[in-house]
Amino acid sequence: MERLLPQLALDLSEPLSDDPAELFAARVDDVRLEIGFGGGEHLIHEARKAPSCGFFGVEPFVNGMAKAVAAIEGEELTNIRLYDGDAADLLDWLPSKSLLRVDLLYPDPWPKRRHWKRRFVNAENLARIHRALRPGGVFRFASDIPSYVDWTMIRVLRHGGFVWPAETVADWHEPYPGWPGTRYEAKALREGRRPAYLSFSKR
């Protein structure tokens, strides 16, 4: 953490060019963002699978960040940059139309009604995601909490800048292509909760 994280960490106080691909050690063709990567299983899997893509990973908790840093070093990945602050700040820092995809996978559902205002999916953050995505870029949201899935559907469709292309139930109950699964998802399945995998394309 002391040696490698400073090399991987994004510094939002630094000015950024119109091409965030320049932030990676090797040239990448496009850039994706994962918000709240937890233990980093999905982030590392995606970076390994797509070495020509750059990945920004956001995780405020030190244990998750430490796991990601260890995996990045162990696999010698050069296409990941990390940020341990608020994902909203990172989205504001990024140039408009700079991301191919934004993933929000199993976010904290804040199940108590008085805490709903803390949910990451809200009008302000959806506007941030929409601004940062390229036309045709994709916002992916996965959750095993039905109330948060409904909440997200309502707010994304209310935004008006996204298209939900699903045509059948399988389109949102089947995992994403190449999905590696996560420990949290495995626990949800063991406890009988069926996840939803939503994908919204920017108009």
Description:
By secondary structure, this protein is α/β, with parallel strands linked by helices. It has one domain (29-202): 3-Layer(aba) Sandwich (Rossmann fold), CATH 3.40.50.150. The chain is 34% helix and 21% strand. It has 8 helices and 7 strands, in the order H-E-H-E-H-E-H-E-H-E-H-E-H-H-E. It has a 7-stranded mixed sheet, sandwiched between helices. Helix 5 (123-132) links the parallel strand 4 and strand 5 (133-143). The longest helix has 14 residues, at 62-75. The N and C termini lie far apart (40 Å).
In short:
The chain is an alpha/beta fold and 203 residues long.
Q: Specify the number of helices.
A: 8
Uncertain residue ranges: none
Q: Mind telling me the C-alpha Rg?
A: 16 Å
Q: From the coordinates shown, what is the CATH architecture?
A: 3-Layer(aba) Sandwich
Strand content: 15-25%
Pathway: tRNA modification; N(7)-methylguanine-tRNA biosynthesis
Binding site for S-adenosyl-L-methionine: 34, 59, 86, 108
Pfam family, one: Methyltransf_4
Catalytic activity: guanosine(46) in tRNA + S-adenosyl-L-methionine = N(7)-methylguanosine(46) in tRNA + S-adenosyl-L-homocysteine
